[in-house]
Design goal:
Helix 7 crosses helix 8. The strands form four sheets. The chain has a five-stranded mixed sheet. It has a five-stranded antiparallel sheet with strand order 11-10-9-8-12. It has 14 helices and 16 strands. Helix 13 links the parallel strand 13 and strand 14. With 429 residues, it is an alpha+beta fold.
């Protein structure tokens, strides 16, 4: 063993699927049951009333989706973000989009209610379609941080629905929302000022991923944790806050990004993102890249470790559908595209993907980290055979030390068997 340095072995819980522990090289790594926190969509209050009177004095709205709601001041600026990407909207039918635009404009103007365009009813939509379309609006608009849910009133003649009146429910009044929006915009502008206008899609996605992880802590009981205020202002959130903040920043940078809802392999609700990088779709899970998430979720073993883990993990930065489905299950209101490209995957782009144990490639990777002032390096293996070979050589046979400069500290490592990656970092603790 070089430099009389000893190694600690760590296995992160949650998406690594392993226990957090400290042990010598000769000890076996322990496994514990996984434990995930749920972070679902905003609560909704969906109510239905029926009556025989049609509110003839109300204008239901033109077929082009024009807004005829109550309680919104047309002179005031809309809360809607001009750069928002309407990914979910584009996957709705023409009739569904009419209702989408009615809801979008009313909620974005902090309105009280709107009568949904009768073109939707004439096309066969019913009250049960309201929830799905409402979810699509929220999925496309992270800036609607003040929207809590909705209610609706259904008017009928006999068995036929003649009108549906939709109302938004909010967590605050308009004045408070406007003040919070100013705080959000100030924080977002500060973050966005740190990236070059000439940056490409990959650089933008990585920058947002890194920045949000470093500036946010995962905390189950965080206030406002289902929306972007928790991330940009409070700096503590849960998965939906991370995902919506990622979407908000990337949309403002001109990168197509949408919210994805589903579950992780323990069956708990989770949120992440779909991004379009250089013309191809990839999945990004900012939450699972944050060390504070791993610590929160692995609280049963976290106290056994007295040294810090790297802040950022890149196993879920621009991954394919096949990689994602090893630990995630897709859900939500619209179908996601099949992601098959790897050109913009972090490990491919950073030349950290290995098909075999390659000493020259490893040394180049460690040299690059040293030049950048980083004390951690992650390698990803193309298959299980490569992973086993890397694990045997670097950990069991202690060859990791030939790639490290002389130091008096220790070396820690983490393994992710789901994604076949190994992370090493220097610690002085």
């Amino acid at each position: 063993m070089r430099n009389r340095v000893w190694m600690k072995g760590i296995c992160w819980l949650v998406f690594f699927g392993l226990a957090l522990c400290s042990c010598s090289l000769e000890e076996l790594l322990q496994e514990v049951p996984r434990d995930y926190a749920i972070s679902g969509t905003a609560p909704q209050d969906s109510s239905e009333e029926t009556g025989e009177l049609f509110p003839e004095e109300e204008d239901a709205g033109a077929e082009d989706g024009s807004f005829h709601g109550e309680g919104a001041d047309e002179e005031e600026t809309s809360f809607l973000m001009p750069e928002a990407v309407r990914f979910a909207c584009e996957r709705l039918s023409e009739a569904e989009r009419v209702w989408y635009y009615d809801m979008e404009r009313m909620l974005g103007s902090f309105g009280d209610k709107v009568q949904l365009d009768n073109a939707g009813l004439e096309a066969g939509l019913e009250a049960e379609d309201v929830d799905r379309i409402f979810q699509c609006v929220l999925n496309d608009h992270p800036e609607l941080f003040f929207v809590e849910g909705y209610s609706y009133t259904r008017y009928t003649r006999g068995e036929r629905t003649t009108a549906i009146e939709f109302s938004g429910t909010y967590t605050m009044d308009r004045e408070t929302a406007a003040k919070r929006l100013e705080e959000i915009d100030a924080a977002a502008s500060r973050i966005l000022s740190g990236i070059s206008p000439d940056a490409g899609d990959y650089e933008k996605v990585k920058y947002v991923y890194d920045t949000l992880i470093r500036e946010t802590d995962y905390e189950l009981g965080a206030p406002d944790n289902q929306n972007i205020y928790s991330v940009f202002v409070n700096h503590v959130s849960v998965c939906q806050g991370y995902a919506k903040a990622t979407q908000y920043l990337l949309n403002r940078l001109g990168v197509e990004c949408t919210l994805v809802l589903g579950t992780v392999d323990a069956g708990e609700g989770h949120a992440w993102n779909l991004v379009k990088v250089e013309g191809d779709y990839y999945f990004v899970d900012t939450t699972w890249g944050d060390a504070s998430y791993r610590t929160e979720e692995g609280q049963g073993d976290a106290e056994e470790t007295d040294f810090k883990v790297p802040e950022v993990n890149y196993d879920y930065l621009n991954v394919t559908t096949a990689e994602l489905l090893r630990t995630h299950t897709l859900g939500g209101e619209v179908e996601m595209p099949l992601c098959t490209q790897v050109k913009a995957n972090y490990y491919v782009r950073e030349k950290a993907l290995f098909s075999a144990y390659d000493e020259e490639q490893l040394q180049e990777l460690f040299n690059k980290a040293l030049e950048q002032g980083r004390d951690d390096v992650t390698v990803k293996c193309a298959d299980r055979a490569c992973f086993d070979a890397m694990y045997t050589a670097l950990i069991q046979e202690h060859e990791i030390f030939q790639y490290l400069p002389d130091h008096n500290g220790s070396v820690a490592y983490a393994q992710n068997e789901d994604q076949l990656s190994l992370t090493f970092w220097v610690t002085n603790e």
